[in-house]
């Protein structure tokens, strides 16, 4: 091995460690490694920037906008909600919901589908006394399986396609992957309907659990005439930075003031609603003029009667809130919302609310103003999974919604007929959406997940470093020398397993980008078609079922379902094995 190969290998190992231990956002970890490779001269500027002009990456950017236009209309959401309401049994509801969901995920981005359908499923379950945990992991899994059917079903497929084109190959057609994607989707659905749902936990919704234990979180104090700070604002009254307790709402007669600002004036007779560690309630009792209301029936339902809403959100993997405490992030002032409780790994965190350091997948229960959803529905900081209706969706023009869906269908038909490449079709679709004012330029920008694009483009640059230094060739030779005596089928299983392992530990696109240079060298040394190996990588990189961190849809349902890592392992491992056996068997017989 040359010095350059050793250096690149060390950087890749460091990158994998950084992703695994979540030292920073995934896109920043990978981009940092790319910059180091550029500065040290391993990569030229052209090589380092090659990922930013990759056709697959740019197609993903355009697809975000097109899918956003379809999502904005809310038509699919309302259709599915009405369709689900007619379900009588648990098995019947799973069939009615998950079959069309897997179809939609073949043509739309998986993330907005899961974000949108999570509250619909939760509300349906809560209305019928069914645990949402029986439905939310399957929701994530069926969108992953459906996404393997077409080229545009998942960003992974498009990245692999873009890399193949860059290396001089023809890449995938729109339905190249369907020969594998449809069978594994069927196998996966059968498993989830028969065995999988029995292995899922029976967890109540997070907000339900908090409501049942509201006294553990909420304390009510009355302001009497002897309170020396009557007429002063909250900050001057010393109620802003109390140890372990936070003032989230003031109830003044029929008026509900929430969230409470520092300049809000305290008046006699006010009911002050605090949240935090109730064990520190003695701190409030020491303040003369504040009377603890004993035996109160105050709870979350009472708080919702005012102008405030109860919102449940999940901290996203690209959130600017991660690795900072709620207080450091200035959550209250930034989002005009108070944090009622935090949920992690099916546990309520027993520490001061303001000092909780947030992680991806944490679920926050917020008391927020009525315009919170409209303001932050497209925020990259978290996924909104509240059971409340989304104002942004309800305001849309149905005609524009049908136009967006029809445009997507037409573009897919043109790609299938070979009239346009996927990139040209999506570019034209975005131009039409902007030209007809179905989307504004500002909305289009909101729908693009720039952190995902940075991650993909940076990972492509690292893939180039593996090829240019000869590291990919060296690793491929190692695989050949180990697997060739055992046969091509065993090598396929090894490639699938390695890709899938990377996906579970880091991210799907990063796993695909790391493996493609290796398998292209592998196919050259074995003198076989590279397409079979490329399909293997694309499917294995998407098939993340065993951990919540490998695929962002798993992370989205992690908090709302009240799941633990063990739940994913228990339900996802059999599914992962079934998908691997089915995929490798089909790929071996079709491409080799």
Automatic annotation (TrEMBL):
Source species, domain of life: Bacteria
SUPFAM superfamilies assigned: TrkA C-terminal domain-like
Localization in the cell: Membrane
Cellular-component GO terms for this entry: plasma membrane
Assigned keywords, A-Z: Membrane, Repeat, Transmembrane, Transmembrane helix, Transport
Coiled-coil segments: none
Domain RCK C-terminal: 206-290, 298-382
Membrane topology annotation: Multi-pass membrane protein
Keyword Transmembrane helix: yes
Molecular function GO labels: monoatomic cation transmembrane transporter activity
Protein name in UniProt: Di-and tricarboxylate transporter
Major subcellular location class: membrane
InterPro entries listed in its UniProt record: Cit_transptr-like_dom, DASS-Related_Transporters, Na/sul_symport_CS, RCK_C, RCK_C_sf
PROSITE patterns: NA_SULFATE, RCK_C
GO terms under biological process: potassium ion transport
Membrane spanning residue stretches: 6-21, 28-45, 57-76, 97-121, 141-160, 172-193, 402-435, 447-466, 486-519, 531-551, 571-591
